[in-house]
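Design job #97: recover the sequence.
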């Protein structure tokens, strides 16, 4: 695998993320206040968003180009992004992805920040999701 850089995407380059998501027909989108992190090779091959919430951040929008999956891109991207934030990091995922997240330090949790609990309840009306957290060290 050629060298991959994991870096925060400057706000002015935000359209590159939307282009990446669209090119792969991903439903992912970046919220306005989110920090955007990308894996570049030199084109974007993976991305995620970190949105501030009470006590930490909410990780959303994790997507890796299908041709790059299984090569450690997602784990590397998460590791790079989480170095830059303080507090806990929460995410929602489908149950079959829990093993991946648990291997990189996340644990299943039901106790969520006030702004995330109703969102998870709403999402669970249409799909099975679990919530995970990686607590601040």
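Job complete. Output follows.
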């Amino acid at each position: 695998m050629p060298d991959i850089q994991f870096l925060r995407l400057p706000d002015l380059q935000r359209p590159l993320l939307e282009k990446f998501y669209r090119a792969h027909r991903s439903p992912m989108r970046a919220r306005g206040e989110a920090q955007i992190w990308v894996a570049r090779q030199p084109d974007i091959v993976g991305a995620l968003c970190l949105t501030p919430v009470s006590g930490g951040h909410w990780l959303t929008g994790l997507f890796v180009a299908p041709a790059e999956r299984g090569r450690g891109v997602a784990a590397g991207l998460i590791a790079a992004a989480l170095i830059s934030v303080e507090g806990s990091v929460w995410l929602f995922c489908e149950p079959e992805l829990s093993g991946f997240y648990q291997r990189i330090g996340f644990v299943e949790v039901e106790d969520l920040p006030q702004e995330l609990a109703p969102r998870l309840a709403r999402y669970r009306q249409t799909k099975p999701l679990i919530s995970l957290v990686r607590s601040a060290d």
